[in-house]
Design a protein that fits this description.
This protein has 209 residues and is an alpha/beta fold. The protein is built from 7 helices and 11 strands. A hairpin with an 8-residue loop joins strand 8 and strand 9. The longest helix has 11 residues. One of its GO terms (molecular function) is S-adenosylmethionine-dependent methyltransferase activity.
């Protein structure tokens, strides 16, 4: 999970340090920082599905962007963290410091867009995010999304990053279970082509309705 508004505290996770999300009710959601920084079991589901120019939204430290480049696939990571962009470039991937809701190079021409590692939650409204992502892909393009397991549904929460200062900003995040993606996609003008599981990770491919 990587989003724009978290400042230096969130960079701890990008650098591989332990951190978590604290919900307003006190619940704690651990962030999978180990997966962000190193190749992870299940990544091949996403990598194998990317056969053309790919936009990695919320690329974080760039493991997927760089892996695609290593396969000879044109890939661009976008992330609102300067640290993420620096780390991606250090891995040999291309990345821009950019909010996905701002102008993105190649709008309307990307063959694939990735929303991995919980990035479907960026901005706290998956329907809005998917509508924006649909603007970025080609007419015959697709969106590859990582999801929560079945039974999780759609959830929006106010959260803040921990550890961090007492006055660290709260922001909205969302989680989408594989059982909820069809409805969320339909509201964004998309449909689910397939869903699949690899170990404990769940994925879906979305295309225009």
């Amino acid at each position: 999970m990587k989003t724009a508004l978290l400042g230096n505290e969130f960079d701890r996770g990008l650098l591989g340090h332990h951190c978590w999300l604290e919900l307003a009710n006190g619940e704690r959601v651990e962030l999978p920082v180990e997966r962000w920084t190193a190749p992870s079991d299940g990544d091949e589901v996403l990598l194998d599905a990317c056969t053309g120019p790919t936009l990695d939204i919320g690329c974080g430290p760039g493991r997927l962007t760089a892996a695609l480049a290593g396969r000879g696939v044109v890939a661009l990571g976008v992330d609102s963290s300067r640290t993420a962009v620096r780390l991606t470039r250090r891995r040999g991937g291309s990345a821009l410091h950019r909010n996905v809701f701002d102008h993105v190079p190649g709008e309307g021409r990307w063959r694939h867009a990735l929303l991995a590692d919980g990035n479907i939650g960026i901005g706290g409204d998956p329907v809005v995010l998917l509508r924006r992502t649909a603007q970025l892909i080609a007419t015959d393009g697709d969106i590859l999304v990582e999801l929560e397991p079945p039974g999780r549904g759609l959830r929006h929460e106010r959260v803040r990053l921990r550890p961090g200062h007492a006055d660290v900003a709260w922001f909205t995040w969302a989680w989408v279970g594989v059982d909820a993606i069809a409805e969320v996609a339909a509201r964004a003008g998309l449909r689910v082509d397939w869903t699949t599981r690899h170990g404990h990770r769940w994925f879906a491919r979305l295309e225009r309705s």
